[in-house]
């Protein structure tokens, strides 16, 4: 039994959104909701102003509030630790969304169910990488077994200081970050979903 | 130093909207009606049997209403059904609450059947005596379920990042007292409207005393809730939102003035005026409902 996780190296993320786009395409994610987004955060002031790119997704938490909150048992943990939603069992009560401190879950109106990142179980079952990992041009996302000392992810995690998003929530995320400039602290109040209420109105294709 | 807001907002909008807010507000009503009528029915009033019967019908009606709200919120009736029939996660307050609602509706239906049969039967004394023990046990079970449903919103909302006030020390007690207030006010309201039913005077008297006692407990609980929020910085932000911020008008106007001061004056000084009792009961209902809404919404 593996302990699957993802490591994101913020040193090399260039904020290109290839991961978000690949994920959207892989799952036909509806407009306005996301399994993976990249936060752009500006910090400091001239002449020391800087911009951070922070990819965010479901953390497949070891202690997952979404899983504990779901009244129908639709949120499940798979053998290798991925937290997924059984579409047929979801009755759309949104308890998982109210409990997840990362805003990682959204309502898919067409499917009539809550949805989120699955760590691409359908791809990894075939030995492939998650779509977002495959798409990343700088290889800043590494996916694998955190418990396998020989895996690339375990080696890189051991060789670097790693951080998690919103550590104070006590959820013990399996998505780890190499974050030398403490960028994660800048998105402590944010979530995966994007507030589009300030977007300018326009025609949707 | 900036103090982080106690409610993070990881979603652009809270996952639970107005329908769930109405549910949280109204789910106290059937519990309050059951607990109030159960208490009144044991005060040796002349109309004790009728009070139990009306109480069961009233609680059933209110439960039917909130079930409809839940069905609308979930979108389809079978989704509500799955909430009752799935036992995969009894660690979820929503799962437990839905099953308690279903159990209470079933038990109320049995009790109502007994009440109505007893009333219609020409020889009512015999079957009622035979079933009295069962009825009494069922009534106790219904009372315990009602108590559980009165406090359960605190547990439900404390698991949500969107309702940080429901995670406070006084939340469960406030949910319980507001449920009792709603129940007592609904009974007084009904009695004041139906003025001509037998036993009105003693019912009004007992109901008024109960409501005054509850209002006193409510005021003290609110006071200590606010004091408990004065400690940590994130809690002070919540208290600020209630006392001087965006929710201040609702808190001071509807909860304190409307929900406590107005009915206290009405029930203390105009005790024989049925209109004053009516207005007081409506004010209590509004104040209790607003309090429950604030526990749901403050910090979002
Ligand atoms: S990030 Fe949210 S959705 Fe993902 S496992 Fe943790 S609580 Fe659940
Ligand atoms: S692992 Fe798959 S589902 Fe999760 S963010 Fe990446 S592409 Fe999307
Ligand atoms: S694809 Fe890679 S580099 Fe581009 S935004 Fe995503 S994580 Fe960053």
From TrEMBL, chain A:
Residues 4-26, 49-80, 81-110 form the 4Fe-4S ferredoxin-type domain. The keyword Translocase does not apply. InterPro entries: 4Fe4S_Fe-S-bd, ET_IronSulfur_Cluster-Binding. Keywords: 4Fe-4S, Iron, Iron-sulfur, Metal-binding. GO terms for molecular function: 4 iron, 4 sulfur cluster binding; metal ion binding. PANTHER family: PROTEIN NRFC (PTHR43177), PROTEIN NRFC HOMOLOG (PTHR43177:SF3). This is 4Fe-4S ferredoxin. The lineage of its organism: Bacteria, Bacillati, Actinomycetota, Actinomycetes, Streptosporangiales.
From TrEMBL, chain B:
The chain crosses the membrane at residues 20-41, 53-72, 92-115, 136-154, 174-198, 210-230, 250-270, 277-298. This is Oxidoreductase. It is found in: Cell membrane. Coiled coil: none annotated. It holds the Pfam family NrfD. Belongs to the NrfD family. Keywords: Cell membrane, Membrane, Transmembrane, Transmembrane helix. It comes from the Bacteria. PANTHER family: PROTEIN NRFD. It is a multi-pass membrane protein. The keyword Phosphoprotein does not apply.
